[in-house]
Each structure stands twice: as structure tokens, then as C-alpha cells.
């Protein structure tokens, strides 16, 4: 499973999502869209959104920290 997190260092929701993924021991690639303009363009083109965080799980994009969708897509439980 390939997981990428489009984020910025100043986004509190990004920090919360990173903490959540780390606690669940989910490996992901973090992409700072303030520094990586190509990734920023990809994120906007795929989601029609300019907000972060955006999680790309095997090509399925989840905008925002939607805990329910993320847990479901990753196949983990809240108690893990």
C-alpha cells in the first residue's frame, strides 16, 4: 500500500493526522506542498481542493482528517 500525505508545516490538522498515522504505525511519505509545487499541482488537480491535509492511499484521495474514511481505507481500528 502506497500512502502519501500532502501537508504544510503550519497546518494543525496535518500535525494531528501525522500523529494519528504515527500512533497507528502507518508508513507514509510526507510531501510539503509549500516546497513541492509539482506535488501541490497534483493535489489540486486530483482533488479540486487547495486545502491540506490530503491523504493519497493507493490513488484514492481523502481531503482533510476524515478519521472514519482513513480508518476504513487502511483497514485499522480506533483501538489499534
Rg calculated over all Cα atoms: 12 Å
Q: Give the topology string: H per helix, E per strand.
A: EHEHEEH
Unreliable stretches (pLDDT < 50, length at least 5) are none
| Fourth-tier CATH superfamily name | Glutaredoxin
- What is the total tally of β strands? 4
CATH class, please?
A: Alpha Beta
Compute the average pLDDT.
94
Number of domains: 1
Shape: globular
Beta percentage is: 15-25%
User: Architecture, according to CATH?
Assistant: 3-Layer(aba) Sandwich
Oligomer: single chain
Strand order, sheet with most strands: 2-1-3-4
Report on this structure.
The chain has three helices and four strands; from the N terminus they run E-H-E-H-E-E-H. It is α+β, with helices and mostly antiparallel strands. It has a single domain (3-64), classed as Glutaredoxin, CATH 3.40.30. The protein has a four-stranded mixed beta sheet with strand order 2-1-3-4, sandwiched between helices. Helix 1 (12-23) links the parallel strand 1 and strand 2. The two termini are 18 Å apart.
What structural keywords apply?
80 residues, alpha+beta, Glutaredoxin, four-stranded mixed sheet, 4 strands
Summarize the structure.
This protein has 80 residues and is of the alpha+beta class. The chain has 3 helices and 4 strands. The protein has helices at residues 12-23, 37-47, 67-74, and strands spanning 3-7, 29-32, 54-57, 60-63.
Amino acid at each position: 500500500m502506497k500512502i502519501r500525505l500532502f501537508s504544510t508545516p503550519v497546518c494543525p490538522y496535518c500535525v494531528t493526522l501525522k500523529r494519528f498515522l504515527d500512533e497507528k504505525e502507518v508508513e507514509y511519505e510526507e510531501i510539503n506542498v509549500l516546497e513541492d509545487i509539482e506535488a501541490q499541482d497534483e493535489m489540486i488537480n486530483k482533488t479540486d481542493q487547495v486545502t491540506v491535509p490530503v491523504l493519497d492511499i493507493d490513488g484514492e484521495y481523502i481531503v482533510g482528517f476524515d478519521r472514519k474514511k482513513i480508518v476504513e481505507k487502511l483497514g485499522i481500528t480506533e483501538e489499534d
